[in-house]
Amino acid sequence: MAAGRLPLPLGLWLGRRLGDAAYLCVTRRRRLALANLARAYPALPLRARARLARHASQHLGMTLIELARVLARPLEATLDRIRLEGVEHLRAAMAAHGRALMLTAHLGNWELLAAAHRLTGFPLSIVVRPLDAPWLDALAEKLRRSTGVELIDKRGALRPVLAALRRGRMIAILMDQNAARREYARAHPWCPSSGGATPTGATR
């Protein structure tokens, strides 16, 4: 992708402008972001909440540029810019148990974790769900597979996850999303959260 070959400062500037354009043009998402921020920070003035929402949109734009850079350049160029902290805890868990279950969230550029796993020396499987935008889903899948990760569809993921753990792999799961289908959500209880409700799941 052409945007991935731009110098990093220029590319990130372009990503922020893309985020600004999305914030202005994608009305439904902007309203949803502002509504969620109003629930989370009711005491925050509207102008401040709007600034936070715009910065979040800019962040997503920069994330897209960074993903384009991963696809447009040798993987080693990306790995040279990544530094892992606390990896000794992961290595201790793998040494003790031969497998690891990792729970994370949508913080920073979470897609770069697919590339970063190469620095650990351990194989990685990721539980994923299709993204809402087909073009973005295709881009994310191409990126993830280019880094050598195994993708596990969240629909019926239990058996593949257990099999991957038996093979001595790391399993990564993003826990801060409602990945369930509507039928599942209706069948399980919701708990109050930030002025709204959050779905819960069953554990066996």
Structural overview:
The chain is α/β, with parallel strands linked by helices and 204 residues long. The protein has two domains: 2-73, no CATH class; 85-183, 3-Layer(aba) Sandwich (Rossmann fold). Helices cover 53% and strands 13% of the residues. It has helices at residues 8-25, 27-40, 46-72, 75-79, 87-97, 112-116, 134-146, 158-166, 182-187, and strands at residues 100-104, 124-128, 150-153, 170-174, 190-193, 196-199. The strands form two sheets. It has a four-stranded parallel beta sheet with strand order 1-4-2-3, sandwiched between helices. β5 and β6 form a beta hairpin. α1 (8-25) crosses α3 (46-72) and α2 crosses α3. The longest helix has 27 residues, at 46-72. The mean pLDDT is 86.
List the helices and strands and how they pair.
Blueprint: H1 8-25, H2 27-40, H3 46-72, H4 75-79, H5 87-97, E1 100-104, H6 112-116, E2 124-128, H7 134-146, E3 150-153, H8 158-166, E4 170-174, H9 182-187, E5 190-193, E6 196-199
Parallel strand pairs: 1-4, 2-3, 2-4
Antiparallel strand pairs: 5-6
